[in-house]
Design brief:
This protein has 326 residues and is of the alpha/beta class. 35% of the residues lie in helices and 16% in strands. It contains ten helices and twelve strands. It has helices at residues 37-49, 65-73, 103-117, 138-150, 164-171, 194-201, 240-260, 264-273, 288-292, 304-314, and strands at 3-5, 12-14, 16-19, 54-56, 82-87, 89-91, 97-99, 122-127, 154-160, 178-180, 204-207, 278-284. The strands form three sheets. It has an eight-stranded parallel β-barrel with strand order 3-4-5-8-9-10-11-12, surrounded by four helices. Helix 1 (37-49) crosses helix 2 (65-73). The model has no long low-confidence stretch (mean pLDDT 93).
Length: 326
C-alpha cells in the first residue's frame, strides 16, 4: 500500500480508501440492495490487513447502519484506522432524507455518529452536501465544526460535493482539510476547476465513485439490469440508452487496460490517482475481493499518451449523475 498526506495539515492515509455506502444495506431510499453484515465485517478486516487505513462512511448510509458496521469491525483496532464520516443529511421517522447544516443539527448528529461508531472521536468529519433545505450558511456550519474541534470530538474538517465558490466561503473562516468530489474517467469535471483549486489551497482530495458506481468495474454488459431496490436501476447513466452508451465506452477502455496487462477497474483507479491533487480514491466495497482486486492499481503508472487516449475515449460517455446521498 502507498500513503499520502491529506492536504497540508491532515493525516497520512492510504491511497485506496474503503467506501462504506453499500454496506449500509437495504431498506432505505438510496440502497445498493441487501447486504450481509458478516460479509461487510470480513471486507473491512481484509482491507485493514492489506494496509488500508482510511475508512469513509456517512450517517445516512443505511440510516446509521453503515457506521455501526464500521465501528464493530474496527473495535480493538481504532488506533490503526482513520475514520471519516459525513453529516448534513438527516432523516425522519419515515426515512425521508433532507439536508441540514445548522449548528444545532450538527451537534446532535456528531453524538449519534460517535455512538454508532463506538469511538470518542472522529478523525475526519465532512459535510455531505451543501445545505439547500435548512439553508444554514457556510459560516454557521463551520462554526459548529470549530466547536467540535475544540471539544476534541473531531480532528479534521472536510466537505463533500462543494463547488469552488463554497470552498472559498469556507476558507474565509478556517482551513478545510479535505474535499470529496465525484471523480472518475467517466465523470472528470473536477479536473477543470476543483482539483487545481484544491491543490493550490492545500486541500486534500478524496475521490468518490472512481469506478463510476460500478460502470468501470468491468462486471457489466449492455444486457445487465439492476435490481429495482438498487438506486442504479433508476439512474439514466445505469439504465436505458445512457447505460448502453457507457458500456460501449467501457469496452474501449478494457482494450486499453488489456494492453497494459491490468483490469479496467485498476485502470480507472490508476487514472484518478495519477492526478497530483489526489490523496485517496474510495473503492465501494461489498465483499473482500473488491478490495483485493483493487490493490494492484496502486503500482500502475500511466504515461501522458495513455492518459490522453483515455480522455478521448471517455468523451463519448453519457453523463454520470449521483443521487442526493453520495
Amino acid at each position: 500500500m502507498q500513503y499520502r498526506k491529506l492536504g497540508k495539515n491532515g493525516p497520512v492515509i492510504s491511497v485506496i480508501g474503503f467506501g462504506a455506502w453499500a454496506i449500509g444495506g437495504g431498506n432505505w431510499n438510496y440502497t445498493w440492495g441487501n447486504q450481509e453484515d458478516r460479509l461487510s465485517h470480513n471486507s473491512i478486516r481484509t482491507a485493514l490487513d492489506a494496509g488500508i487505513n482510511f475508512f469513509d462512511t456517512a450517517a445516512v448510509y443505511g440510516l446509521g447502519h453503515s457506521e455501526e458496521v464500521i465501528g464493530k469491525a474496527l473495535k480493538g483496532d481504532r488506533d490503526k484506522a482513520v475514520i471519516a464520516t459525513k453529516f448534513g443529511l438527516v432523516w425522519d421517522e419515515q426515512g425521508n432524507v433532507s439536508r441540514n447544516g445548522t449548528y444545532a443539527s450538527i451537534l446532535r448528529e456528531v453524538e449519534a455518529s460517535l455512538r454508532r461508531l463506538g469511538t470518542d472521536y472522529i478523525d475526519l468529519y465532512q459535510m455531505h452536501w451543501p445545505d439547500t433545505d435548512a439553508k444554514a450558511s457556510v459560516e454557521e456550519t463551520i462554526r459548529a465544526l470549530e466547536k467540535l474541534l475544540q471539544d476534541g470530538k473531531i480532528r479534521y474538517v472536510g466537505v463533500s460535493n462543494f463547488p469552488v465558490a463554497l470552498l472559498e466561503e469556507a476558507l474565509k473562516i478556517r482551513h478545510v482539510d479535505s474535499l470529496q468530489p465525484p471523480y472518475s474517467i467517466l465523470a472528470a469535471d473536477a479536473e477543470k476547476e476543483l482539483l487545481p483549486y484544491s491543490q493550490k489551497q492545500g486541500i486534500g482530495v478524496i475521490a468518490y465513485s472512481p469506478l463510476a458506481s460500478g460502470l468501470l468495474s468491468g462486471n457489466y454488459n449492455a444486457d445487465t439490469r439492476f435490481d429495482k431496490q438498487d438506486w442504479r436501476s433508476k439512474s439514466p447513466s445505469h439504465s436505458g440508452e445512457g447505460f448502453k452508451q457507457n458500456i460501449a465506452v467501457v469496452g474501449q477502455l478494457k482494450e486499453v487496460a488489456a494492453d497494459l496487462g491490468i483490469t479496467v477497474a485498476q485502470l480507472a483507479l490508476a487514472y484518478v490517482l495519477a492526478h497530483p491533487a489526489l490523496t485517496s480514491a474510495l473503492v465501494g466495497v461489498r465483499k473482500p475481493e473488491h478490495i483485493l482486486k483493487s490493490l494492484p492499481a496502486v503500482d500502475v503508472k500511466l504515461d501522458d499518451a495513455v492518459l490522453a487516449k483515455i480522455r478521448t475515449i471517455a468523451a463519448s460517455a453519457a453523463r454520470i449523475e449521483m443521487p442526493i446521498n453520495e
